[in-house]
């Protein structure tokens, strides 16, 4: 996926559910099976935001009816700290 937000001085991002975003995604499509169908739970095999990177495999939940993405507290806290720092740099 292209990382154009910071280069064009724009914040934000998106997820594409139920479709294919050929403008912003590469040629390789990988489907992640749900580990708990009732909660849309899947194995998150790493996350990278700015300088923060965590390669642990953890359970995460993506609620497609809301903007909720749930993951372990330590991962979410570090991602939030990175976003806050990034926003302070932009402003």
UniProtKB/TrEMBL annotation:
InterPro entries: Aspartic_peptidase_A1, PEPTIDASE_A1, Peptidase_aspartic_dom_sf. Residues 1-91 form the Peptidase A1 domain. This is Peptidase A1 domain-containing protein. GO terms for biological process: proteolysis. It comes from the Eukaryota. Belongs to the peptidase A1 family. One of its GO terms (molecular function) is aspartic-type endopeptidase activity.
